[in-house]
Amino acid sequence: MVRRINMKKIPLFFGLSGMVLIISACGQGGNDEQATSNEAYKLNVGIAMNDRDPMYEGIVRFKEAVEARTEGGVEIEVFSSSQLGSTADLLEQARVGANVATLTDAGPLGDIVREISILQAPYIVDNLDEGRQLVASDLFKEWQANLEPEGVKVLSFNWFQGERHLATTRSVLTPDDLSGMAIRTNGTSIVNKAIEVMGGNPTGLAWAESYPGLQQGVIDGVEAHYSAIHGARLPEVVDSIAKTGHFQLLTALTVGTQWFDRLPSEYQKILIEESVEAGEYASGLNVERSREYEEEMTAQGVNINQVDIALFREKADRFYDEFEGFKALREEVDEYLDK
Fold first, then answer.
1. Containing H/E element for 7?
2. pLDDT tens over the chain, length 339 residues
3. Fewest CB within 10 A of the end CB: N or C in the chain?
4. Total count of domains within the chain
5. Where is the signal peptide (predicted)?
């Protein structure tokens, strides 16, 4: 017996079938979204320092604490010695949404929000305590907040890499001794001007080129902190270190605003808290190690010269007259620090 099909029911049948397929598809999409939300957020931290540097140890501490507190919700991989690229490259990647972080000083950040550059002006603060007071101030935090619309989120600005001194192939005791000497800088205008007003000839050069540059006479010295000088084995190719302390190198652990804003709020809080804690740990370690580095470098035959800082500070005053707007900025900072 042939069964007659009721043609009137066909549209209803296919309509119901279509609804089932749509519901099924929606259900599968929801599962995919749920699976995605359960995946770990990944962050690659790239720094210029090698794996023997106190800053590297601080970053590892940050990684371990964040992964523990988020129970693996945030996974962090650490890359030393510029394996992921330069600080400037990583900062730009972070700004466009990449899952990268880096330690950076005030120079590159000052290219985005100019006021932040004041932290890298010569003798803007006298010591680490004043530097910490400045970066913790409402004044500085206001400048720091202006980075966020530009794509940069500062997790903490308390990673102290040390006082910057002059490591040279011949002794420097006064600013006059710098005359005619090519001093390696990172190439930023603010650092170049600082070295220029103190009496040297600023020479922009990649840090990795410092050793061969000194060895071959391309440069006569570098301005750097102890952990960098020691880590790059520069005591093998320099004669002396003038303890000018022209910069107090406080640096920031930064991520991209876009990446940070995608994190659950509890993860954001954890990253900030652990970055501050790790920064304090690395800074303390660095202060302790700096004393050891000085002893080791002295034993290697490097002359550590306690110079009259007032002479260099006097020369550096010209910096604030020649860098537009920085005289007013210094007055604002001095007023806050009650100097």
1. none
2. 333 334 333 333 334 333 333 333 333 333 333 333 455 899 999 999 989 999 999 999 999 999 999 999 999 999 999 999 989 999 999 999 999 999 999 989 999 999 999 999 999 999 999 999 999 999 999 999 999 999 999 999 999 999 999 999 999 999 999 999 999 998 888 899 999 999 999 999 988 899 999 999 999 999 999 999 999 999 999 999 999 999 999 999 999 999 999 999 999 999 999 999 999 999 999 999 999 999 999 999 999 999 999 999 999 999 999 998 999 999 999 999 987
3. N
4. 1
5. 1-27
For residue 134, give both structure tokens.
């400045």
- The two tokens of residue 139 are 């004044």
Q: Which domain holds residue 96?
A: 41-337
């303890």: which residue's tokens? 243
CATH code for position 107: 3.40.190.170
- In a domain, residue 1? The reply is no
